[in-house]
C-alpha cells in the first residue's frame, strides 16, 4: 500500500512570517561599513514590526486573536497592527483547508534603541558592489517580474537572461501523486545541475516514472523521465536535510544550459575550524519563483559575522555538516528584496504552493550561476553536489536502471570579480 501525504505547502495558511521593522523616528545616525556593506545605524530609533506571511497564496481569515481587533490583514499577505496596539499578540488563521497553530506577533513600539538600516552602498570592486550593479541594471530594464507570456512562452526576451534559465523544469508532475503530468498542483520547479541530474528541496518531490518537461530559448519542449530519486528529507530520521536529487533517463541536449554552481567565494565563509565556521554573505542575485516564473531581484548584505556549529554526521557513506549544507540565501527571511517588492510594486510576488525549491541565481564570471534554492536553508557545496551525484548513480546501478555511473560532476562558477 502506498500512502501519499499532501505537502504542507499546499495546505498551510501560513508557513512562516518574515518580520520587517517600520521606523517612526530616529536620531544619532552614523554611517558604518562591515566588510563590503555600507549602512546607517541610529542610536535612538523608535520602531514597530510588520509581518509578511509566507503561505500558499490563498486569502486567510483570523480565527482568534488575544487582543481584540489587534491585527489588520486588509493588505494580506502583509499583517500589520491596528491603531493603538502596543503589545504581543497571539493569533490563529484559517484558509479553506486548514487552521494554523497560534502565531506570536511582537507589535510593541520599541523606543530609543540601536537600529541598523539595510545596506545602501557597497565597497568599490567588492562582490556585493559588482553583483548588485548587474542585478540593478536587470531590474531597471524589466517592465515587470513576468518571464512567461500568456502562452507560457518566454517573455521580455531582450532583457531577461533566458538561456541561463532553461535548466529549470518548465513543467513537471504533480509533486505528490506519482506519474501524473499536469493537473492540480503541477508547475515549474527544480533545477538541472548536470545533463542527467536535477536537484532541489526535499519536503516535496518528484517520483520515479514522472515526466519532466524543459523548454529552450526558442520555446521547444524537451521531455525526460525520472528514473531514480533520493529524498534525504524522508530518508534521514532525526536529522532532516531538505534536499532531493533526481536522475533522468537521458542527457539533456545542448540547447538546455546547465548552470555552474556557486563556489565558496559566494558562500560568505570568512573563517573555519574543525567544529565551526563563520559567515558573512554579501552579494545580489535573482530568485526565479517556481510556479509562475516571477523573477525577484534580491540582495544579501549581512552586517555582522555569524559563527555556526558544523554538527558533522554520516549517512550511508555520505559525510554531512552544516558548512557543506549552508545556504546564505536559503529562506526569504535571510534576504532583502532589491529593489523594493512591497505589495503592489513591480517585483512583488505572493508566495504560491510549490515555491519551495525555487532557484537563486547570482552573477558570475561570464554569466549566472546556481547559488541556492528556496528551502529550509540547505544547499550543497560543489563537492557535496558531486558526492550526491555519485550516490544516486550508485542507487540507480543497484536497482538496475543505470548500467554504469554517469561520471558527471557539477561545474564550479568563477566569481565575477575574477
Describe the fold and architecture:
This protein is mostly beta strands. It has two domains: 8-117, no CATH class; 124-418, no CATH class. It has six helices and 25 strands. It has helices spanning 8-11, 127-141, 232-235, 264-267, 322-325, 382-399; strands at 16-25, 29-34, 37-54, 61-65, 71-72, 78-81, 88-94, 103-106, 110-116, 121-122, 191-192, 197-200, 211-215, 221-231, 244-248, 269-272, 276-279, 282-288, 295-301, 306-309, 313-315, 318-320, 336-337, 359-364, 367-373. Strands 1, 2, 3, 5, 6, 9 and 10 form a seven-stranded antiparallel β-sheet that branches. A five-stranded antiparallel β-sheet has the order 11-12-15-14-13. Strands 23-19-18-24-25 form a five-stranded antiparallel β-sheet, covered by helices on one side. A hairpin with a 3-residue loop joins strand 16 and strand 17 (276-279). The chain is globular. The termini are far apart.
Can you tag this structure with a few keywords?
about 35% strand, about 10% helix, about 425 residues, 25 strands, mainly beta
Please outline what is shown here.
The chain has six helices and 25 strands. With 418 residues, the protein is mainly β.
Amino acid at each position: 500500500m502506498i500512502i501519499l501525504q499532501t505537502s504542507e505547502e499546499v495546505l498551510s495558511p501560513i508557513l512562516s512570517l518574515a518580520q520587517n521593522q517600520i521606523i517612526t523616528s530616529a536620531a544619532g545616525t552614523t554611517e558604518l561599513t562591515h566588510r563590503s556593506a555600507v549602512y546607517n545605524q541610529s542610536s535612538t530609533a523608535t520602531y514597530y514590526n510588520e509581518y509578511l506571511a509566507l503561505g500558499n497564496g490563498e486569502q486567510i481569515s483570523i480565527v482568534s486573536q488575544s487582543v481584540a481587533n489587534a491585527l489588520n490583514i486588509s493588505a494580506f499577505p502583509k499583517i500589520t497592527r491596528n491603531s493603538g496596539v502596543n503589545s504581543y499578540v497571539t493569533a490563529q488563521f484559517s484558509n479553506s483547508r486548514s487552521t494554523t497553530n497560534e502565531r506570536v506577533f511582537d507589535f510593541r513600539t520599541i523606543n530609543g534603541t540601536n537600529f541598523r538600516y539595510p545596506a545602501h552602498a557597497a565597497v568599490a570592486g567588492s562582490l556585493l558592489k559588482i553583483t548588485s550593479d548587474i542585478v540593478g541594471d536587470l531590474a531597471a530594464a524589466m517592465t515587470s517580474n513576468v518571464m512567461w507570456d500568456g502562452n507560457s512562452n518566454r517573455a521580455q526576451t531582450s532583457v531577461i537572461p533566458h538561456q541561463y534559465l532553461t535548466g529549470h523544469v518548465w513543467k513537471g508532475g504533480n509533486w505528490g501523486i506519482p506519474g501524473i503530468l499536469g493537473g492540480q498542483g503541477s508547475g515549474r520547479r527544480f533545477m538541472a545541475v548536470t545533463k542527467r541530474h536535477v536537484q532541489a528541496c526535499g519536503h516535496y518531490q518528484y517520483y520515479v516514472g514522472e515526466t519532466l518537461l524543459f523548454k529552450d530559448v526558442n520555446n521547444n519542449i524537451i521531455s525526460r523521465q525520472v528514473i531514480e530519486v533520493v529524498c534525504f528529507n524522508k530518508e534521514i530520521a532525526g536529522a532532516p536535510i531538505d534536499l532531493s536529487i533526481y536522475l533522468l533517463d537521458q542527457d539533456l541536449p545542448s540547447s538546455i544550459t546547465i548552470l555552474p554552481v556557486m563556489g565558496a567565494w559566494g558562500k560568505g565563509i570568512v573563517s573555519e575550524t574543525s567544529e565551526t565556521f563563520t559567515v558573512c554573505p554579501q552579494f545580489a542575485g535573482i530568485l526565479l519563483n517556481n510556479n509562475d516564473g516571477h523573477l525577484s531581484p534580491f540582495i544579501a548584505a549581512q552586517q555582522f559575522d555569524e559563527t555556526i556549529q558544523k554538527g558533522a554526521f554520516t549517512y550511508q557513506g555520505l559525510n554531512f555538516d552544516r558548512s557543506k549544507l549552508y545556504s546564505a540565501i536559503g529562506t526569504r527571511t535571510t534576504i532583502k528584496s532589491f529593489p523594493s517588492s512591497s505589495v503592489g510594486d513591480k517585483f512583488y510576488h505572493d508566495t504560491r504552493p510549490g515555491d519551495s525549491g525555487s532557484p537563486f541565481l547570482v552573477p558570475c564570471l561570464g554569466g549566472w550561476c546556481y547559488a541556492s534554492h528556496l528551502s529550509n536553508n540547505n544547499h550543497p557545496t560543489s563537492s557535496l553536489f558531486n558526492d550526491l551525484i555519485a550516490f544516486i548513480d550508485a542507487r540507480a546501478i543497484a536497482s538496475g536502471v543505470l548500467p554504469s555511473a554517469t561520471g558527471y560532476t557539477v561545474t564550479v562558477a568563477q566569481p565575477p570579480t575574477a
